Amino acid sequence: MLPDPLHPAIVHFPIVLAVLLPVAAIGALFLIRRGTVTPRLGWGVVTLLALGLFGSSWLAVETGEQQEERVEQAVPERIIESHGERAERFLVLTGATLALAGLGLARGRVGEMGRAVATVATLALLPAGYQVGHSGGELVYRHGAAQVHVAAAATPGTEGGGAEARSDDGDDDDR
What we know:
The protein is an all-alpha fold.
């Protein structure tokens, strides 16, 4: 069974990958330069991480949009829109970084340049990712976005909550 809401569970993947990606890129450049790994192998790992970052960022944006109307019950629309715009900007940046990482798989000078530019791009993702995460945290902790889900869970018969919505897993310890 998936968590409800799904968005809070998903958003942590892009955060982690955005932090790991520059470390992996710098490490891959170092190992490639030393001749420890081939460019295809070393940079292939970076490209796969960039793909994971792009995919998880896209999923975070999609699940966030699904929650937008519900959260508007507790949070002013302008604050939600600001967070959404930051998330979409981050998604575009992750897509561009993925494209650059893909260039890094090419042979010769094109691959070398692609790897160098992609590494810089991974570092540029950090402040953009921070902005999205910070604004999301403010939605929850300053503006009470989670309250709509807490209220729904406390009200029987509502979406995501109450005795009717609880699955019977045979564990009565939490009742």
